[in-house]
User: Which sequence fits this backbone?
């Protein structure tokens, strides 16, 4: 949440209005036109509040959307600091579970509308996605430090494989039971054996390219 | 391509019209409203042909869109049958290069509109995406057969990691040079070492879960 843009009056009535506004925003954002179809007027009508009630709390449509997206994502679990396998599995499980949530389609629509709404998309990446990616990145870096992960690990490549495999499907497409654990296991131990075929480029480390 | 739905008259003038229609379809599909914003009327106007010219060749808007998407994707390279590493790298390179193509945004829009256009999306998956996934799947299965890949490999999990890491970014976001090679290398050898921390669940095969 971009907390500085949102002021709670502390009064229950105001909190109820906030909640109704956030929910109306997410409902509209989940519909097909996505960001393009969302207006302060439509949010006000759906939430049953006046437009000024919204403008009093959020300076712009983008600020409202970002707060709503922040409210729709549960925080990722805090890494335990035990094993890297354990921490990656916990994060991967949280990411697959998230897909079942009511508002997962909103995120898809914001990403889909990035070309027309680049500023919103950039703030979404910076304020909502990057802090979550950073949690995963830190676990990988810690693993390199402890020797659980390869010393020559390309952290961004590993991130793209882990997160890509967990987030590239559409929200209504489900993963089989145990997908998160299987992805982490496969990422840790790899799919190759030591057997090689003639014509294989061998397994020189990437850094040798 | 759903070839049976498209009939070439064999005359140059007809081929020019086909090409103009396909290009107009892709241009419209690349715009923000995506599938929802594309009509036969709009395609006809942009291509400079009459609506009947379109209907003579394509029985429906969906059939036209699917042909246009098929025309916009270059075929994946034929696996050489040498080493699995070599074949996976060739496929991964083709997939990352494809992102730079003019019409990569069309695919994003069809996937983004899947909820409102489920039948089109299902045909897109079946006719365009699945045959491409099957090429990758066969290389992985071959690797299990030759012993280059682990005998207990979960092919679908490996697919989700390989393809997720190559396709989950938005089309205008680029990968660093060498990304395809790095992903294949990381997938083959894994990121873990044999070192383990207390509390680690160990490396029992997934099938033991």
Assistant:
């Amino acid at each position: 949440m971009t907390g500085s843009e949102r002021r709670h009056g502390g009064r229950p009535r105001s909190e109820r209005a906030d909640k109704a506004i956030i929910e109306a925003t997410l409902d509209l954002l989940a519909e097909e036109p996505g960001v393009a179809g969302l207006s302060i007027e439509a949010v006000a009508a759906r939430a049953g509040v006046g437009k000024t009630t919204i403008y009093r709390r959020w300076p712009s449509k983008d600020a409202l959307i970002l707060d709503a997206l922040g409210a729709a994502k549960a925080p990722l679990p805090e890494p335990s600091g035990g094993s890297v396998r354990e921490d990656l599995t916990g994060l991967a499980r949280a990411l697959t579970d998230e897909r079942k949530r009511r508002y997962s389609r909103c995120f898809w629509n914001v990403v889909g509308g990035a070309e027309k709404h680049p500023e919103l998309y950039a703030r979404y990446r910076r304020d909502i996605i990057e802090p979550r990616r950073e949690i995963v990145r830190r676990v990988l870096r810690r693993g390199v430090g402890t020797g659980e992960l390869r010393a020559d690990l390309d952290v961004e490549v590993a991130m793209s494989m882990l997160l890509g495999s967990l987030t590239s499907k559409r929200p209504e497409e489900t993963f089989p039971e145990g997908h998160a654990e299987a992805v982490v296991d496969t990422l840790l131990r790899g799919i190759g054996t030591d057997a090689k075929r003639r014509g294989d480029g061998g397994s020189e480390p990437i850094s040798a390219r």
In short: Chain B touches chain A through 68 residues (CB under 8 Å). The radius of gyration of chain B is 21 Å. Residues 74-189 of chain B form a domain with the Tetracycline Repressor; domain 2 fold (CATH 1.10.357.10).
